Amino acid sequence: MSDFQDLISKLKKKNDSKIVLLVADGLGGLPLEPGGKTELETANTPNLDALAQRGTLGLSTPVLPGITPGSGPGHLGLFGYDPVKYQIGRGVLEALGIDFDLGPNDVAIRGNFCTLDDAGSIEDRRAGRISSEKAAPLCEKLNDIKIPGVEVFVRHVKEYRLVVVFRGEGLGGDVDDTDPQATGVPPLDPNPRNEAAKKTVEVAQEFLKQARELLKDDRPANFLTLRGIAKRPDIPTYEEVYGLKTGAVAVYPMYRGLARLVGMDVLDAGQTLDDQCSRLEAAWKDYDFFFMHFKYTDSTGEDGNFDAKVQRIEELDAAIPRITALNPDVLMVTGDHSTPSKMKSHSWHPVPTLLAANNCRYDNSTEFSESACLRGGLGQFEAKYLMSLAMANAGRLEKYGA
Amino acid sequence: MSDFQDLISKLKKKNDSKIVLLVADGLGGLPLEPGGKTELETANTPNLDALAQRGTLGLSTPVLPGITPGSGPGHLGLFGYDPVKYQIGRGVLEALGIDFDLGPNDVAIRGNFCTLDDAGSIEDRRAGRISSEKAAPLCEKLNDIKIPGVEVFVRHVKEYRLVVVFRGEGLGGDVDDTDPQATGVPPLDPNPRNEAAKKTVEVAQEFLKQARELLKDDRPANFLTLRGIAKRPDIPTYEEVYGLKTGAVAVYPMYRGLARLVGMDVLDAGQTLDDQCSRLEAAWKDYDFFFMHFKYTDSTGEDGNFDAKVQRIEELDAAIPRITALNPDVLMVTGDHSTPSKMKSHSWHPVPTLLAANNCRYDNSTEFSESACLRGGLGQFEAKYLMSLAMANAGRLEKYGA
């Protein structure tokens, strides 16, 4: 634990309060022109605005100023974990993204099918972007690889991408990629970065040897490279840090996986925001804390579709009454990062954040927007402190010192 | 020292400036209803408002977001010490609270008289809340306990509560409580949490053995439990960090003790704010820095008495002209934490803070209030940085680097 989480963990106490963290992925935006409005400011959001009036606003910095986070660090910050301390390897994120239940003894790897020429050099790093139909059976073939003392799992992701997991005692995660990031050269040998990774390298070498034999007639996918070889971070659970019994209501596997990483129960969330609200209602009595995730504010931003992002924010707004009807003691609405449609990508901009609770200090906000959040009572703060504010507002922290 | 204090200590320089830190305990508040005003916003404070116009405002986070501090960490933060790094044990705070002058070789303990049954199990953890009249002579009896190589002090606090201090070389502070927090079981043995605490445990065992004999006929107070066994933190003094000669003008023992902990001279402050101002005037030439403490903004908040807190703030405001008449180079008005009367308790909310000095950057504030502080020039900042701002404004810090 970080010192701060250690402090929170010592101060935590239980009560009957309910906390909801509603994450609109990539919520923050930018105006298209100077003086213009952001997506959130353009959207008609009567329910969020009403919530802003009885809550307090602020801008959350996902990691540190200027840092654009991926979904992993973005969510770890919101969950109260220092996203610089706890790093999630690419292989782990890829495994979480296909709902693979990673254990503490698992090494997760992102695999890419590639094409080797007769001399064994890489001709195409993505095997001609082979179709999913053709790649999936190859993954099944690789899944039959047996290595003594280790369980091997191979799962297809999409096109040339796959996930490989080695499960066994004593496997370290710090192994260099075998992808040379170039063509005309052979794949690299897996290289251990420390003592603990040596056994993993032996396993990887054996895996690659068998894979080369199994795939030799499957050109263009006649071999694979291994990338982002990593174990999941050794991370304290929500129960350990906050004493909270936690349910995640997320549709997309990546976010379900991130929730599982911190020990949340991952609930069946259906496919739509309506499904998610129904699940929230059904599970309301069973948990202290709910993490709800809404993906489309990010994907429309990534598409550079300003109007579609506005629409998705309005869709989110329409779901708010079903959440507030449950009377959560603390309701937070925020994002894991900004995804301005102007930039068609994640960005570093701080994220509009709303916290509504009985004892929050009102800040005269009348709407939920980037500009109102800039003047809000929470100020600008690092995302990792949002959970301690939630715990305080829920009455779940003892006084520190006498 | 923390890295930051180490830096300040290297940059400090002397001049003839005078700095006043006026702490209104628990100053921050909450409105009773959305859109309403806090206690400070309700109070009529012409003098503080005038000071706000020629000063700069901000909101101070006592420890970290969401953390509700006790008086100890609240003041350490204002004094510029990292309140997470320097922790003050319960026994130390209890000793400070009765004006006991704790030295670096002292282990301070909060004692509770308790009732043992014939089998030696605890029947009542507070000895029937024995009256002060009956408990005081028992403390005097215990004060006669002699242990070779160690001085023993026993002081009555109130009703069943007392302070025990062991003074001697090589006594560590990390010893578990002997109070089992339950009845029907015997008191626990004192248990060392590390090597340095072993000698303290031997002393405590001998003390408890003699106490059991001395008190055996004093039912209901026929024994005592020991709690919060601790040494004062090894903390650099104000002279070491800031090069300031410092006088504390505080009425209540706890705050006099906290001032003494960081090496302040504790002055006779009388009983009222008027007395305190007179003392400040009389001592003005003798010190560089004055810490003035006003208790009643906290106690009225704890009582849940919104109107009384408003009145106490107005009382504080009325004292401002006597302070400004002395022309301090830097005058700060703040609190060690918030105590909203709505909550009847300390809280985590950031604390309104005012700093007036010749070279501060005005922020167009027209009043001293939570909402003005939210928009103030100091922004939201951790309390531990207030002292470096004061030093800077007093011209007492050299340039850092060339």
Describe the structure.
Two copies of one chain form a homodimer. Chain A is α/β, with parallel strands linked by helices and 402 residues long. Chain A folds into two domains: 243 residues, Alkaline Phosphatase, subunit A (3-Layer(aba) Sandwich); 140 residues, no CATH class. Chain A is built from 14 helices and 13 strands. The first copy, chain A, has an eight-stranded mixed β-sheet with strand order 9-8-10-1-11-12-2-13, with helices on both faces. In chain A, strands 3, 4, 5, 6 and 7 form a five-stranded antiparallel β-sheet that branches. In chain A, helix 10 runs parallel beside helix 12. The model of chain A has no long low-confidence stretch (mean pLDDT 96). At the A-B interface, helix 1, strand 13 and helix 14 of A face helix 4 and helix 13 of B.
